């Protein structure tokens, strides 16, 4: 097959209720593949990353679909540990000052290391706490950092969130509690649930028979062919809907 004639295309929903949602996808000339929706090419990693949130300079790695929950757990635990260090060290100084009947300054002179940990915990708490709050906000909106920043290039009336689940609780559940998808690097590994390496026919690990998932199964729903609910079997795109509404 020759190279694509265009760099961009639109993935349109087949459901009538969401047919106006159009998700742009781009052909990556570096990786020679059509990127899945929400995927982007990282210059530092030199790879296309699925559902890329950002490239973390502190971790020296991209934060994407398979490791976002671990990144969120990391910044949350860092925030809680910094807060615990600050509170425990400050409590030690205050308890000593109260029990011995000395001033706060004298207590600091007696416990210089715990006071240094108070300062260190306060400084270490600010950045991960702000980062955690920012990502709690993003997950509740059903957006990634890249999508949120890019949306501000448009007017507020032209912004939309194509991947939101409708409310903040469902968005949190989908991102933080969904099963971890299989890696794309184990091309010769055994079949795993949700694996899309072999399309509709997959070979079960440890067995000689081929396995074809049922039509109504949600297994690998993000990579399966989209089936239209239109009785005529035609695709319901936004142009078709506008035509139907105009005709009505």
Folded structure, characterized:
The protein has 248 residues and is an alpha+beta fold. The chain has a domain at 68-147. It is built from 6 helices and 9 strands, in the order E-E-E-E-E-E-E-H-H-H-H-H-E-E-H. The chain has helices spanning 68-100, 104-110, 112-141, 145-151, 168-177, 238-247, and strands at 8-12, 22-28, 33-34, 40-42, 47-49, 54-56, 61-63, 202-203, 210-211. The chain has a 3-stranded antiparallel sheet with strand order 1-2-3, with no helix packed on it. A two-stranded antiparallel ribbon has the order 4-5. A two-stranded antiparallel ribbon has the order 6-7. Strand 4 and strand 5 form a beta hairpin. Helix 1 (68-100) packs across helix 2 (104-110). The longest helix has 33 residues, at 68-100. The radius of gyration is 25 Å and the shape is elongated. The protein starts with 7 loop residues before the first strand and ends with a helix.
């Amino acid at each position: 097959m020759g190279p694509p004639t265009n760099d961009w295309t639109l993935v349109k929903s087949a459901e009538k209720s969401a047919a106006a949602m159009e998700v742009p996808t781009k052909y990556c000339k570096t990786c020679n593949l059509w990127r899945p929706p929400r995927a982007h090419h990282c210059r530092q990693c030199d790879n296309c990353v699925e559902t890329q949130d950002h490239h973390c300079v502190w971790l020296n790695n991209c934060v994407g679909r398979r490791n976002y929950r671990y990144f969120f757990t990391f910044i949350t635990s860092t925030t809680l540990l910094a807060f615990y260090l600050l509170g425990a060290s400050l409590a030690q100084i205050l308890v000593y000052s109260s029990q011995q009947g000395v001033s706060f300054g004298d207590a600091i002179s007696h416990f210089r290391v715990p006071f240094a940990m108070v300062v260190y915990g306060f400084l270490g708490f600010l950045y991960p706490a702000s980062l955690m709050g920012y990502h709690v906000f993003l997950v509740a909106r059903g957006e990634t950092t890249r999508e949120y920043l890019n949306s501000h290039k448009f007017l507020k009336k032209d912004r939309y969130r194509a991947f939101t689940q409708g409310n903040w609780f469902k968005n949190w559940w989908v991102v933080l509690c969904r099963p971890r998808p299989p890696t794309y690097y184990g091309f010769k590994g055994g079949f795993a649930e949700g694996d899309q390496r072999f399309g509709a026919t997959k070979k079960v690990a440890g067995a000689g028979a081929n396995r074809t998932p049922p039509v109504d199964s949600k297994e690998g729903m993000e990579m399966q062919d989209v089936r239209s609910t239109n009785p005529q079997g035609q695709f319901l795109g936004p142009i078709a809907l506008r035509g139907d509404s105009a005709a009505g």
